[in-house]
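Let us practice reading a record.
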Amino acid sequence: MSNQISSITLVDLVIVIDTSPSMKDEALNLSDAAASAIAKAKTSCPSDLRVVWLGIEGTWKGTNFKQSIRDYLTKITKVDESKLRGRKRGELKSAGAQEDAARAIEDISDYFDWREGAVRAIFYLGDEALEGGGDKTQENDIQAADLAIQKAQAAGVVIHTYFGTSKSKHQEGIKTEYARLTASTGGQFFTHKDTISGFSAVLEKVICGSRTTPKIRTNKFMELKPGTVYIQDCVVNELSKLYTLDLATGKASLVGEIVTEVSDIAFVGNELYGLDAEGDKTTLVKIDLNTGDAVSIGNVGFATVGLAYNHQRQTLYATTAKQLIAIDIKTGKGKPAFTVADKDHNCGEVAFDAEGKAYITLIGYNKKKLLATCNLDTGKVNIIGDIGFPDVASIEFVNGTLYGVTGNFFQLGKDGQLIRIDIKTGKGTLIAMTDPIGRWAGMAIYPQRTAGVSVTTPQLKPEEKPENIKVDQEIKTSKKEKLMSTLTIDTKTNCYVIDANQMNNLQQKVATAFTFEKGTFEIRISGGQYTYSKTKTTGEPFVLLWIYGDNDSTFINKNTGFEVGATWTTLNGYNDKLTLEVKERVGSISFFEVAQTDNNPLR
């Protein structure tokens, strides 16, 4: 969704730089890029722009940084020097006063001659800690940043930051504070990796990102709910916005801004990742859902489009025009997996179903977007059919159904459509127009917890046999335990695949089955024990349950809130319970009691 500027916006941008020797190259390169960036910004994001270039306690010869902050504020705005927080050159060891970034932000926020009605922004460039420099963030640096944020917020100032090349082994801690300045004031955070192609694009982003009054982010904890669908827009020269989406109505609720432009998103566990694409370069970023901060992980090495995580293979995948690539989430580096598009098509989006099967979209010269599958073992691509929405920009499976959202990229259709896609025919069906209507580029679902779910059952008395289990239909309330957010299991080394014959044998010869008709049921363990033969103590029983619907019927696991056709779950002791809401009929709940003896370690 694009927030169009209806009239020319007044923008006051103050560019501030650390004037210690290590920042000389940045001062020169940024100055050289200025004319080009400003010219481009006049076209891409018109504004009545005023740029002032200031050095901290110094200047750079041959650059635009021809005035110090102290000189400007005392001579131009006539501020009494005693009011300035910034320390004088020579007052600190080495070049410390020239690296007083947090104090510089305070002084400019308070005393700069901002034009009436202008949007206010500061772009700070440095490579050391924020309070008098240094190669490590200390407590005083954090406190100084807190004061700078307070001053900027009070004055309505957006802070953008750039962290230059550093050899410090503690540089990640410094980057965190630079990023916090921007996240707390609505700005953008950059590093030297963002300037590989030059400073012009970075400065253009800063100019365009300074046109709107900042929306202050807070550190209020956001509780992530399994099954929540997130979507994100992508509008040229605007910060992407993240929303939650109601699939029934199309209502999109704003979560907040992401501090960069993102082309697609995906959850890996409880972490949200995104693609920050610029030209032929794509950077993998990790997005903080509470602040909107986008921390750069690394250059993917490919121009990518779609992003999705395969839970079965524990791999983050992205699409290029012709390939499916696997991304290392620790480094951001991509590695080709398969070629999925021929000379007549380009690949677009990617999604994985519950079994890990890959679905991709292909678009040809006829501007039709096709749904296809890709075999992740062989790389073979099978085209299913025309979606009918060439503007679909991201796809995602939710409870077994494939959904998509659209964005009018390359003039291919409409913004803001929510569609459902038939994976047998490929045909898309319009569900609703989203509210608001956004230029959607990414779609991801926060996954169901894989462990730590609190459950419970009707109890077995010691003298009763398993087949005599009775299920209490009365729903009782109990205090909910704190849930584990994520447990990652390596499926290749820690899981065992049960084929159809083995499953039938378990159901018919091992398990005890129970059938449920329509209604709500609470399941508990009423008796039993768990023991090792060499010990004198016994433990509470543990039961494994396999639940599936009859003739494709579904049920709701009330502990997770998901409506499914089949699930595995466990009951761990007498206090656990499982609550089911059966829609029609659940064909069977199979009980597998677990105990341990010398001769039979698991039964």
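A brief commentary: The longest helix spans residues 24-44.
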